[in-house]
Every structure is written in C-alpha cells, then in structure tokens.
Amino acid sequence: MSEVDITIIGGGPVGLFASFYAGLRGMSVRIIDSLPELGGQLTALYPEKYIYDMPGFPKVLARDLAQSFIEQGMQFGAEAVLGSQAVALEKAGEGYVIENARGERMPTRTVIIAAGAGAFSPTKIGVQREEEFEGKGLHYGVRSKDEFKGKRIGIVGGGDSALDWCLNLHPIVDRIALIHRRDQFRAHEDSVKQAMALDMDTHLWSTVTELHGDERLEAVTLENSQTKELLKVDLDALIVNIGFRASLGPLKDWGLEIEKNQIKVNERFETNLPAVFAVGDVCSFPGKLKLIATGVGEAATAVCFAKTHLDPEAKHFPGHSSDMELPSAAH
Ligand SMILES: Cc1cc2nc3c(=O)[nH]c(=O)nc-3n(C[C@H](O)[C@H](O)[C@H](O)COP(=O)(O)OP(=O)(O)OC[C@H]3O[C@@H](n4cnc5c(N)ncnc54)[C@H](O)[C@@H]3O)c2cc1C
To answer: Can you say whether the dihedral through the CA atoms of 130, 134, 137, 141 is positive or negative?
Structure first.
C-alpha cells in the first residue's frame, strides 16, 4: 500500500472528523477500523438512541449523526481499510508502518489514534463449534441481505439490531426464528411492536446451546431457561446480534504511555511517540471529557499539529472552512 500523510486508527465520530480536517488541510488520509462499517460507537452500540448534546442539533439520532460524520469525513477521498484490527506499529524512517490482522502493511508519515475504548469485536454466543461455523452459516451481522434470500434464518438477540434485522429480512427470507434469552426487548418501542406483528417463530427465555451441521450450519439446539426444555430448530443461517466487546489489545504493546486504558497526551494531543497523536475517548489529559463534542475539537487540533510536523512552514490555523472550496459544496 502507498504511503499517506496521516493514518487514523478508528473510524468513530472523532476519527471521521480528523479525516475531514486532514482533507481540509490537503493531507492524504487512510482510516483503519476493525469493524466492517464506519461510525464507531454510534453505529455499533446505540444507533437508535437520540443524542441531545451535539452543538447545533437539539436532538439527533445516533445512526443519522454517524451517516453525516461519514459523509463529511470521507469527502476528500480518504481510503478506508475496514474489517481488520491494527495490530502493529513499527518505526520506518521518519514515519511508521501499521500492520493489520490481515497482514496488510500500511506506510504513513503520521498517526492519529482515535480508537475509543478499543477495537470492537462482536460478542460470541460461547458454544462449541462456534469458530468452525463462522462464515459457514453463522454470522455476527449482515453484510449483504441477498445472502439470506429464501433461507430459514435464526436471529439471536433482543436489542435494536436483532429486531431491525427481523423487520428488514422478513420480506426476503423463507422463515425467521427469533431467539432471545429474556421475555422483554431492549429495543425501540416501535420496532418491538412491528416485529411482534410479523409471522415468525419467537423463542423467548431461550439460548443456543448447540450448533449442528457437517460442512455448514444446519440446525441449532435451544434451551428454555424457564422450563429447561430443549428444542432442535433446522436453519440455513444464524445471525447473532448480542453486542460488541471493546479492547485496546495490541495498542498496549506499541510503547505508548497508557494510564487506565487511555493514552496520555500533551496539549498538542501528541503521545510519547514522535508524530503519533491520540484523540477522542482513547486519550487522557487533565480535565478530559469523553464526549463527541469535545473529541472533535481534539481531532482538529491534532491534525493541525500533524500538518505543521510534516510542513513546518504551514500555518497552524488554516482559516475558516466557510472561506474554502469543499467537495461537499458541490451538492
Ligand atoms: C449508550 C451510549 C450513549 C452515548 N451517548 C452520548 C451522547 O449523548 N453524547 C456524547 O457526546 N457521547 C455519547 N456517548 C459517548 C460517545 O459515543 C463517545 O464519546 C464517542 O463515540 C467517542 O468517539 P471516538 O471516535 O473517540 O471512539 P469510538 O466511537 O469508540 O470509535 C473508535 C473506533 O476505533 C476502532 N478501533 C479501536 N481500536 C482499533 C484498532 N486497533 N484497529 C482498528 N480499529 C480500532 C473501533 O472499532 C471503533 O470503531 C455515548 C456512548 C454510549 C455507549
């Protein structure tokens, strides 16, 4: 892969704003995220919640805000390398090479770490043969709805994602079995109402205890926690939506100064490593607030210091965006 001016680790709101600001400053950008989608916590953890403290927006749905951050952050043509965690940071000349879990090596002149609480990975159901069936009928999300056309599917979970997938996939699949370990849903009231009106098999108080199949997943055993009854359900695919876990993981071995799972930065958002900055939820300094509104300011400041690091002649303050020609101005 080619060398870029700035690599942003983390495609959450703060990383996306850093991408926008770096584009505004004429820098080439690569953004890396372990998730297959951009948006960070907004998309992964609470897409259906309203946010009330975004400056200028009395109320905005997290999903819609994420979409706006993506549109704004990607408009200068940043390259997005998704679905694989950044696992190594190596010094290379004046800059660095970042490697992800797929073994892709990405040279960069500067780095901004906007990793939030760490790389997200989906929570597993924790039964035998789970790894064996991953991608062979067992999924932790939906990349393409077409893949489930005409199939008998199981959906595990009781939150917004699980119910959204019931509603979205119902028109195209053969049959849905919704599997939830409680009898109450943690989802938007309206989604629960709509989902409960669907013609599908709803298994409450139920967990998946066994996976069956030869080459691919063919059936699951469910256990009802109230009656202890076991039920075998034939399926072509199982979609698990029971949340995400976050972990700083390999970042802890990069030689960064870390305090209570956060990376220490100075007033320029520099870490202890040269040309490596940290912003958003992952950074720590006296008075730090873990908010989107403050994180995006940190991102703009870090980008401006990355710019003057690469080009000491450049101004720290680029001027106002309202005085500039932006790609989005064309819309
Ligand atoms: C339920 C809930 C409600 C909230 N409500 C509000 C609110 O109303 N207002 C508000 O301001 N804030 C709110 N927050 C907090 C807000 O979501 C966070 O402050 C914000 O998401 C931080 O943004 P970020 O970009 O720093 O990190 P994140 O959004 O966490 O994004 C970090 C990204 O980095 C990726 N990543 C991490 N490590 C790696 C790696 N090694 N390789 C590749 N990718 C990596 C992760 O996968 C993730 O996508 C809420 C949080 C929660 C959980």
So the answer is: positive
Counting from 1 in the atom list of ligand 1, the atom nearest the Cα of 114 is 26
Please indicate, yes or no, whether the overall pTM of this predicted structure exceeds 0.85.
no
Domain ranges of the chain: 4-121+245-330, 124-242
77 C-beta neighbours (distance < 10 Å), count: 9
Pocket flag, ligand 1, residue 158 (CB < 6 Å): no
Q: For residue 315, what are the contacts with CB-CB under 8 A and spacing of at least 6?
A: 308
- How far does the centroid of ligand 1 lie from the alpha carbon of residue 120, in Å? 10
Distance 10 CA to ligand 1 centre (A): 9
Cite the DSSP H helix spans in the chain.
Answer: 13-24, 40-44, 62-74, 130-133, 160-169, 189-196, 292-310
The token pair that represents 149 in the structure block: 């056309």
Phi first, then psi, for residue 53 (nearest 5°) are -120, 35
Fold that domain 4-121+245-330 belongs to in CATH: FAD/NAD(P)-binding domain (3.50.50)
CA of 12 to the centre of ligand 1 (A): 6
pLDDT over 70 for what percent of the chain? 99
9 in contact with ligand 1, CB cutoff 6 A: yes
The reply to whether CATH 3.50.50.60 applies to domain 124-242 is yes
Task: Identify the residue whose C-alpha is closest to ligand 1 atom 44.
Answer: 33
Q: For 254-303, how does the pLDDT look when each residue is reduced to its tens digit (9 = 90+)? A: 999 999 889 999 999 999 999 999 999 999 999 999 999 999 999 999 99
